[in-house]
Amino acid sequence: MAAASTTLLFLAFLLPAFHPIEAQIGVCYGRFGGDNLPPVQDVVNLYKSNGIGSMRIYDLDEEVLRAVQGSGIKLIIAVPNDRILAIGHNPWEATQFVQRYVVPYASSIKYIAVGNEVSMDSPQAPLVGPAMQNVLNALNSANLGGQIKVTTAISTSLVVNAYPPSNGVFSNLGFMGPVTNFLLSNGSPLLLNVYTYFAYADPGNTGNIRLDYALLSSPYPAFTDPNNGLQYYNLFDALIDATYAALSKVTMTVSTNVSTPNRSTPRVVASETGWPSKGGFPLRSLGADGGATLDNAGTYYRNVIKHVRQGTPLRPGPLETYLFEMFDENKKPGDVVERNFGLFYPNKQPKYQLNFRSSSVEDMAEKISLAAAAAMVVVAFLLSILRPTEAQIGVCYGKYAGDNLPSAQEVVNLYKSNGIGSMRIYDLDEGILQAVQGSGIKLIIQVPNDNIQSIGSDPSAATQFVQRYVVPYASSIKYIAVGNEVPLNSPQAPLVGPAMQNVLNALNSANLGGQIKVTTAIGTSLVINAYPPSNGVFSNLGFMGPVANFLASNGSPLLLNVYTYFAYADPGNTGTISLDYALFTSSNPAFTDPNNGLQYYNLFDALVDATYAALNKATTAQSNSDTKIVQSETGWPSGGFPPRSAHLLSDTKIVHSETGWPSGGFPPRSAHYTGWPPGGFPPRSAYYTNAGGGETIDNARTYYSNVISHAKQGTPLKPGPMEIYLFEMFDEDNKPGDVEKHFGLFYPNQQSKYQLNFN
């Protein structure tokens, strides 16, 4: 029984690995522009022998459909443009189409494309939507509606304002609005024909598009989208993401049951893409070929096949792509380039050496035994689950504002008994460092604000700090925070950067620079223009510019103190922020960021992603802008009167170094919140249901529970596990202010205030 269970476990691991997601690479098969092409059955055999699992066809030829049937190849078939009028006007025509060309071959058909690049000024254009609906109705009548998706194919020329990609919009919303909503409502993808060659070779773009950018071979980003910080290395990605941006603007207010969170647009399939091997436009300073050469075409196809495994900056993940096309078509009308997109010669010999089996797992399976593959996959899987990504949930331990707190050793034992693997401390107390040492708990320690001037001005002070407070306890220390929310008008602010550098130098001298990361902690109030999040920028680049570049250059995260409570309770935000949006309890998105189509269900994500946006803008092109953000504080008070100022937005890898919610407080405002209208912020006159500022035991419990649960998934802009530090371990009875006394997760007697699972 144990052996059988082990075998089943191995197979469970292996099946996903050896079964690639969709057919990532297909090839278009156009045949009426060539008089020298192989017989249809030979073509199907050629697809199979080259591992090409998907085919797109353009004509209603039952010989092709019969040859493909049973081959394992999946098809995109077409409602040709000249059939759209009839099918759009007459449901009977759609039924006839489905009964003749779909039902007998249904097991091979994946998509039906109603039209291909239908001209916007043609009589067919207004009937594309009705034709799609009639075909879908006919499929439903044949019990095939859930199996075969109905769509249409468009060109990237329908997207305008495409630089930067996040600004992309459709030039004809009268056409694309109904089409997009049909696709979204029915879970169908949009077919997009993507040709970087034509953009490159267009005389109107002379000098604007580099060859390596068009061929997907540039080692450097061409630009960073200022609205979302995404970097673009190639034109293929930029064209697709501009289309996603255009789709998001159409579907922004549409309700959807699409299963992927935060994706309010149809999936895009690159239904045609290619590069001609000769016949280019001799109108640029690129030579008489205009870039249309055998070498360039081979480079393009190889790079596309490799690239589609990773997707685009805005939509990472496998991208279903169809290369154009299987053969040169010697009789095709138009420019010479139109006759030279073939991947194979008519004699079935390859024009280029291409590997259409895009799954590297399949390639590996051909070369090594199944047993070896199983071992590799299982070991990798076990390593991934036994070595989790960072400590997702830590708790801040502040102790000098409480006169009734447990001893340091009791606190460490309490952390361990509750499975809390990370701790943030604020003071230089060697009693805590000694108690944590050897416990397995990882620490964020701090250079207190009042030590920044000496350490920033004097490298020897940094050396003394490291030798005394770091070296003896190095195995327990993960991050050193140089300051916590340093006021920008303080004498310490200009010295935060120098102090970080001096501490790093001292760590390097102690051979600890690769082990312990140096950073600083900021409040979200440093981010302005934070709605929508993609517009976030730092209010003081003189401070944050050097900090962001230091972090990016050294692989350090930014510590971000995130408090949705203070934003919610700020009298200046009355009516702007609903309680469920602040507590992670909203079941509907509050808004969609118009620059990238991401949906926001809670304020925490919006604050963090606004900080990521600000970081991307603050980090120079010479540095790696993918700085992690650690939420170094977050929380909600259970009591107290809220202060008049609020923590607002911020972004980098962000370690969420503080977050929390108070469990008590004095009501700062009155009235009842009525709800969140679609499409924007609520009116200022909206009201809250609680008599206070939201600082109750129930709200605080809800906040902490939801933060812990939410840490697994990340934010819309940066999905994946987050590192978050809850604020704080105990109520601090002598802390100034009212709500500030009520963020504790435990009472001083070590009894829990809330039932939380920190694992």
Automatic annotation (TrEMBL):
Coiled coil: none annotated. Keywords: Glycosidase, Hydrolase, Signal. One of its GO terms (biological process) is carbohydrate metabolic process. The keyword Transmembrane does not apply. Residues 1-23 form the signal peptide. InterPro entries: GH, Glyco_hydro_17, Glyco_hydro_17_plant. GO terms for molecular function: hydrolase activity, hydrolyzing O-glycosyl compounds. SUPFAM superfamilies: (Trans)glycosidases. Belongs to the glycosyl hydrolase 17 family. This is Glucan endo-1,3-beta-D-glucosidase. It comes from Carnegiea gigantea.
